[in-house]
Amino acid sequence: MTNDAAAILVIMSRILEYPNHSFFEELPAIKNFLDESIQSESLRMEILKGIQPLYELDLMDLQELYVETFDYKEQTSLYLTAHELGDSRKRGAALVKLQKLICEGGYEYEGKELADYIPMLLELLAVAPKGENFLRLERRLSFAIHRLLNHLSNDNPYSKAIDLMMKFVFTAPGIEELALLENEREEADLEELPYPMMYR
């Protein structure tokens, strides 16, 4: 992974966290980080242009947008295994494997989120050692980010920011790979039960 790609992942790991007051306070630090990490001025400007729409909202509007975008829709979830497996029982085992991968990278995750939380995995991938498992994680994240972006409307301010990763970091999965991965997913069973359930 190039230094530019790693820098974009670090920035996007911050951008995709739930926004609080520090979100706006960190913009000067993000600009400094870009200046230090990315040599190309045109790339720095494109990154800033991609994230700028988020900084034009006030905090309450941004928080509402975040919840509407990422918390209510499975297709735009910020959890990797939700994109890969849907409502499958396999998600539990997948989470355990991801936790082991985090440890393999030399890190101990102590956050409140599950081990498949995409912002955290983006940061991990940016600093992870080389190896087959992390190359596979990169492909898995490519699929999830591609799927997420395809389910966002173009007028959603997060779409421009997320698109930066597909332009400069990840490679979009091919048709066969997409079909294979989509077949692994299980939809939630939302059908009505054939009889009423009574609780006393």
Overview of the structural elements:
It is built from eleven helices and no strands. With 200 residues, it is mainly α. α9 packs antiparallel against α10.
Mean pLDDT across residues: 87
What fraction, in percent, of the residue positions are helical? 55-70%
What's the story with the biggest beta sheet? none
Number of helices: 11
Can I get a quick summary?
With 200 residues, the chain is an all-alpha fold. The chain has 11 helices and no strands.
Keywords for this entry:
200 residues, mainly alpha, 11 helices
List the helices and strands and how they pair.
Blueprint lengths: L2 H13 L5 H5 L1 H11 L3 H15 L3 H13 L8 H6 L5 H14 L13 H10 L4 H19 L6 H12 L6 H10 L16
Helix pairs in contact: 1-3, 1-8, 1-10, 3-4, 4-10, 8-9, 9-10
